[in-house]
Amino acid sequence: MSTSRSGEQWDEEFECLIDLTLGLMALNEGQRYVNRIQRMPMHTSIRTGHQYMLELINDHPDRLFNKIRMYRPCFEMLIQVLRQQTVLQNSRFLTLEEQVMIFIYVISQKAINRMAMEDWQHSGSTISIVFTRICKAIASLSPIFIKTPNFDDVPDEIRFNPKYYPYFQDCVGAIDGTHIAAHAPSNVANNYRGRKSNVTTNMLAVCSFDMLFTYVVTGWEGAVHDSRVLTTQLEDPNSGFPHPPPGIHRLIFVVLFDLLIKLIMSLPILVLYNRVGKYYLVDSGYSNKPGYLAPFQRCFGVLKARFPILRFMTNFSLVRQREIAMCCCVLHNFIKLHNRDDPLFQRFGVDGVMPPPDSDDEDNTASSSGIAANPHGYGGNDENLANSMRDHIMIQMYLHYNM
Predict the structure, then answer these.
(1) 113-120 and 96-109 helices cross at what angle (nearest 10)?
(2) How far is residue 51's CA from residue 217's CA, in Å, rounded to a whole number?
(3) Contact indicator for 290, 378 with CB cutoff of 8 Å
(4) Residue 210 DSSP class
(5) Which of 37, 42, 280, 356 falls 20 to 30 Å from 374 in CA-CA distance?
(6) Could you give the angle at the alpha carbon of 51 between the alpha carbons of 49 and 57, nearest 5°?
(7) Cα separation, 121 vs 161, whole angstroms
(8) Cβ neighbours of 165 (radius 10 Å)
(9) Per-residue pLDDT tens digits of the chain, which is 403 residues long
(10) How far apart are CA 267 and CA 247, in angstroms?
(11) Quick check: 129 and 94 in contact, CB under 8 A?
(12) Between 113-120 and 49-58, two packed helices, what is the crossing angle to 10 degrees?
């Protein structure tokens, strides 16, 4: 009996040993299969990223424009500027042209990393490194391409357009804010939610009448009202905000209401403003005050049409998202300066005036109490003064077009 029991135990142990051996063999074979898959080259297309870039550059001009939203002469000029103004050069495996094209492709096509990997035949880590490097370099060009206008000059778009001159001869630009789609960590996401509950960042920009950005601030939380962003920049002596110079006191011709009605029907009237100075047009979400006159039409339409990533931001860090928005503004100005016939500017710009707001923007006009007092010493009647100035411009234009 004892011998029989020992045989049964031996049989059980042998079966366990066989099962363990088979299991180890299966595990080993599975690991070998995984290793083969991991070692298998993925980006093996006959057309390399460099060849794809050359194909786009040398083929029909619209192919390149549809891919990166700029034409070849403008792209080549951008490469030249980056070589001269930054430390960017060819890397070991990628030319600077290909690196820049990958970056602009991503922000123009709202492409995720996997899409860029497939189109350009590079690994995900290479795409990420290239994107970060080019993003920082283009953002560093903002002081060169986003400049304060000359307040002494009347913009050509005003001077040579009878619809605007002389009524807006003291206008030096326009101010508005727009919301940029964003990704934020869950612990601070509520700070970035606007009235539509979308996670966004608030961007403030000053635009000239030829649709150039002359001042840009990015990265404010989406829940912050436009007027608070502007007020903070106005009050911060280190913000670099281009304040319009104050005007001087001028004589006002006061006309009684009944006399004004008679003049409307017969003779033109000249209205001079008190303390006119230079001013910006601002969106109706801002308060009227000397130097800032509401409302105006914005130029963000062309920016978001060219760079859809601003509407559909992928999961970058908040710092990188601010840099991306700044890069888009730099490239916007660069294209405007080097290609005045750009199709998007032609489509959106009419007589140098910005297109109307886009429907995707957050409407947060009720989320704040408006602009704080002017830090440059304007008195308590500033809003009335600015309202009077706006009304006088309206009267002049009415008289001009109805007599």
Answers:
(1) 140
(2) 38
(3) yes
(4) T
(5) 356
(6) 105
(7) 50
(8) 14
(9) 445 556 666 666 666 777 777 777 777 776 666 555 556 677 777 889 999 999 999 999 999 999 999 999 999 999 999 999 999 999 988 999 999 999 999 999 989 999 999 999 999 999 999 999 999 999 999 999 999 878 888 878 778 877 777 777 777 888 888 899 998 988 888 889 877 788 999 999 988 888 899 999 999 999 998 888 888 988 888 888 888 776 543 333 333 444 444 444 444 444 444 445 676 776 655 554 544 444 446 578 899 999 999 999 988 999 999 999 999 999 999 999 999 889 998 887 654 444 444 444 554 443 333 333 343 433 444 555 455 555 555 555 544 555 5
(10) 28
(11) no
(12) 80
CB atoms within 10 A of CB 20: 10
What's the residue count for the chain?
A: 403
Question: 47-81 as b/e, with b when 16 or more CB fall inside 10 Å?
Answer: ebbbebbeebeeeeeeebbebbbbbeebbebbbeb
Residues 6+ apart with CB under 8 A from 293: 171, 279, 280, 281, 282, 386, 389, 390
Burial (CB count within 10 angstroms: exposed 0-12, middle 13-18, buried 19+), residue 192: buried
What is the Cα–Cα distance from 120 to 127, expressed in whole angstroms?
9
> Does the global pTM surpass 0.70?
yes
Collect all residues with Cβ–Cβ distance below 8 Å to 101 and sequence separation of at least 6: 53, 56, 67, 68, 75
Give the Cα separation of 284 and 126 in Å (integer): 45
Tokens of 184: 């934020």
Q: Which one, of 176, 167, 186, lies nearest residue 213 by Cα? A: 176
Structure tokens at 320: 């990188």
Preceding amide of 166 cis, omega within 30: yes
Q: In what order do the strands lie in the sheet with 171-181?
A: 213-221, 200-207, 171-181, 279-282, 292-293
- Integer CA distances (angstroms), 44 to 98, 117, 295, in order: 18, 11, 55
Q: What are phi and psi of 299, to 5 degrees?
A: -115, 15
Q: Could you give the angle at the alpha carbon of 5 between the alpha carbons of 4 and 11, nearest 5°?
A: 90
**Crossing angle of helices 49-58 and 61-68, rounded to 10°:** 120
Query: For residue 97, what is the enclosing H or E element?
Result: helix 96-109
Q: HSE of 316 in the Cβ direction (CA atoms, 13 Å)?
A: 29
